[in-house]
Amino acid sequence: MRRRRSAKIIATLGPASSRIEEIRSLHAAGVDVFRLNFSHGTHEDHGERFRAIREVEAESGRPIGILADLQGPKLRLGHFEGGRIELKEGAHFRLDLDPRPGDENRVSLPHPEIFATLSPGTTLLLDDGKLRLEVLSCGADFAETRCTTGGPLSDHKGVNLPNVVLPVSAVTEKDRSDLAFALEHGADWIALSFVQRPDDVAEGKKLVAGRAGVMVKLEKPSAVRRLAEIIELADGLMLARGDLGVEMPPEDVPSVQKQVIHASRAAGKPVVVATQMLESMISSPTPTRAEASDVATAVYEGADAVMLSAETAAGRYPVEAAAMMDRIAYRVQQDPLYFSLLESTRIEHEHTDPDAISAAASQVAQTIGAAAIVSYTTSGATALRAARERPRAPILVLTSNLSTARRLALLWGAHCVHARDVRSFTDMVHQAVRIARHEEFARPGERVVITAGVPFGTPGATNTLRIAWVDR
After folding, report:
1. Tens digit of pLDDT per residue, the chain (472 long)?
2. Is 153 within 8 Å of 178 (Cβ atoms)?
3. How many CB atoms lie within 10 A of CB 328?
4. Active site residue 54
């Protein structure tokens, strides 16, 4: 099952898409990686999804990635007498630690760590930014505020603090339990929520301990401000535009998206663009033209993957949404400007043999019109370097490590095949040519460019480039 596009598709599973028949249809429609959102559902629910995905993988013969998305800390208000109030603009409103039901004058905010960071003038956002409060005075267990943007407010709505770094870990006790479950069931990527600083990434990496890739969700402006440090620690990045757009002016998000994609690509780290991509397809069989443009923009900018959330988890048209995203990404790649735009972005290379070989492979493939670049890899490092070049030729990734093949399922341009180890140069060429023909990348009489590391099987040791003819 060869995809005819380089950008990958991630789909979130949920009530609308958890049966094996639905997962099979989503994969056939174009989904490369499935996201399990641990903010919802039980371990039993997610266990069934793991089993169904792996069954579909076995049927298709194609490695499928699984992304386990941890919930992270959730900062929420307490509850109200009657379940909801109307908070008027200009009204004074108190937040405190008192667990009693709230009213039009006060409500519980059971997070002392928030009060520890407040000062007069601080802005608090409620219910995804729909309501705004300005702190007038505060202490260790209260904050007197004035409502600057009013509206209806109900139980347990979320609280955001733009430009405030909170003294909380990105990994809660619930996350630790979910992480252990996800790793036990073979998750390929772990997504960390509520990352504020590089230390949060280091904590997540320590807990994962190399058993999966660590993907940092960029949801907080404080994380964007320390992007370079976070990219260095992360294995991948996800631009979570919904949460980021709550704490950041909406007009800033598009430029941040471009910066994150460029910086991630320069570092050779996969980057995913997420949230509200085909939002109207939750209830409609077709997207708006603006949504189609949004998906196309992320593909034009060189994102490794684009992600569907509620569209496939809870929407009425999950398969149609995946198929639409597939068609958009395919159509963008047919545009003559697509590769010209990617090539116009200068990528600085390190002065190493692997970087030199990867850059040369892309250039050689274009010069000779190669049908594919065949990348042998154990850890995935060779494939990551190949994809960073955004070559016009497709990348056929061969690895003897199944977990590597699954992890690279979200990598731009990578078609992963779980293959046996090679023993010699001759064996390397024969296997590369045979699989390139079998996977319909090359026909007899065409050439492929092969990169590998010698000694074979040595992680990260890309030092060999070979041009091979496909036998007639």
Report:
1. 789 999 999 999 999 999 999 999 999 999 999 999 999 999 999 999 999 999 999 999 999 999 999 999 999 999 999 999 999 999 999 999 999 999 999 999 999 999 999 999 999 999 999 999 999 999 999 999 999 999 999 999 999 998 899 999 999 999 999 999 999 999 999 999 999 999 999 999 999 999 999 999 999 999 999 999 999 999 999 999 988 999 999 999 999 999 999 999 999 999 999 999 999 999 999 999 999 999 999 999 999 999 999 999 999 999 999 999 999 999 999 999 999 999 888 778 778 888 899 999 999 999 999 999 999 999 999 999 999 999 999 999 999 999 999 999 999 999 999 999 888 889 999 999 999 999 999 999 999 999 998 887 677 678 889 999 998 6
2. no
3. 25
4. no
Enumerate the β-bridge partners of residue 465: 451
Is residue 303 within 8 A of residue 274, CB to CB? The reply is no
Active site residue 443: no
Q: Would you call 220 a catalytic residue per the annotation?
A: no
265 is catalytic: no
Domain ranges, ordered by start, for the chain: 8-72+170-337, 84-160, 353-469
Catalytic residue among 3, 5, 8, 35: 35
Is this prediction's pTM over 0.85? yes
CA–CA separation, 47 and 181 (whole Å): 9
CATH ID of 353-469, from 3.40.190.170, 3.40.50.720, 3.40.190.10, 3.40.1380.20: 3.40.1380.20
Question: Which strands form 92-96's sheet, in the order they lie side by side?
Answer: 106-108, 92-96, 142-149, 131-139, 123-126, 159-160
